[in-house]
Specification:
The protein is mostly beta strands. The chain contains no helices and 31 strands.
Length: about 325
């Protein structure tokens, strides 16, 4: 006789002897479907987030379904096998990450095979870096989103540098600052990447990476003689110790032409042209590696007009002697 398939069956048995036979004895029973085989992942394998699983021997007749469960019976995914028994599951939910044990069985109606287990790991999804979005200081604060409970590492991409910062994801978000052992970041543009670890399993590195700009410190203009002369120099402090470009601006707009002394964290600015008599309001910025600092506080100062002189008249002078005044400001 043909082999019985999976499912419920009822057989009747009798004894025949010549033309006589005994009464039928019936027996109801069930045949389990064959247990499936898991091809992917291998034992101890590591899957990307949202991967599918596959295998063979999943068909035990019409209506066969392969179910993938965690311990306790919660179903992760299922697959419909072809008639040769090959099956590929729907993608696992992206909420699954870490070290897992998978329980797989074949269901045919109300009957199911024995479970087949497989231990493997699922990478957490990629974290995201969301900030800082604008220019930042030399000890930036980072923020982003990630897998709940995961530990996030932030690094400078393609640089053999230590981890810049770490954070734990809480309520789907994370916040991090430079580690206490980390030095201030030199000014300039940075390309950052991140990964996250959950249950001992690392995600891939974030790609495309995240870019930030680290500003040099804010310079200052020292207090000066007020009112000052037409060639009043300005002392600039807080200058970055390295290659830097300094620029002085009128508060009302426009760059002030002049020269800065060439070295040191304190520089002296000398204007190309005399300061015009009156009140001036100026500020200074510094640029390092293409990133400009915040502008300094405004420094206001007054410039005295030149000192006039009276030309010595003839002596003795006339009763209506006119006086000649020189050094008068032209303006």
């Amino acid at each position: 006789p043909a082999a019985l398939g999976a499912g419920s069956h009822e057989l009747y048995v009798r004894i025949d002897k010549g033309n006589e036979h005994s009464a039928y004895i019936g027996r109801k029973f069930s045949i389990r479907p064959l247990a499936p085989r898991i091809s992917h992942p291998v034992q101890g394998g590591i899957l990307e987030s949202g991967s599918s699983l596959s295998g063979t021997q999943g068909y035990s007749g019409a209506g066969s379904i392969v179910t993938l469960q965690e311990y306790g019976g919660h179903e992760w995914a299922r697959a419909t096998p072809d008639t040769n028994g090959a099956w590929t599951s729907a993608p696992l939910p992206r909420s699954i990450a870490g070290r897992k044990t998978l329980y797989v069985r074949v269901d045919v109606g109300s009957h199911h095979s024995e479970y087949v287990t497989r231990d493997f790991s699922v990478k957490p999804p990629l974290p995201a870096i969301l900030g800082p979005t604008g220019p930042t200081g030399q000890r930036p604060a980072f923020n982003g989103s990630g897998y709940e409970g995961a530990t996030v590492e932030i690094v400078q991409q393609n640089h053999a540098t230590p981890v810049l910062a770490t954070a734990t994801v809480r309520n789907g978000v994370w916040n991090a600052v430079l580690g206490t052992g980390s030095q201030d970041l030199p000014p300039g543009p940075y390309v950052l990447s991140a990964r996250q670890r959950f249950d001992g399993v690392w995600s891939n590195w974030l790609n495309p990476p995240f870019q930030i700009s680290v500003q040099p410190p804010r310079p200052s203009i020292s207090a000066l003689t007020n009112p000052g002369g037409a060639r009043q120099p300005l002392t600039i402090t807080g200058v970055f110790n390295g290659t830097v470009t300094l620029e002085l601006f009128h508060e009302a707009g426009g760059k002030v032409a002049g020269t800065f002394s060439s070295a040191g964290v304190t520089r002296l600015f000398t204007p190309t042209a005399d300061w015009a008599p009156g009140t001036h309001s100026v500020h200074v910025t510094q640029t390092v590696n293409g990133v400009a600092s915040e502008r300094s506080d405004v420094r206001a100062f007054a410039v005295k007009p030149p000192r006039p002189a009276i030309t010595q008249p003839a002596s003795p002078a006339l009763p209506k002697q006119a006086l000649t005044i020189t050094g008068v400001f032209s303006g």
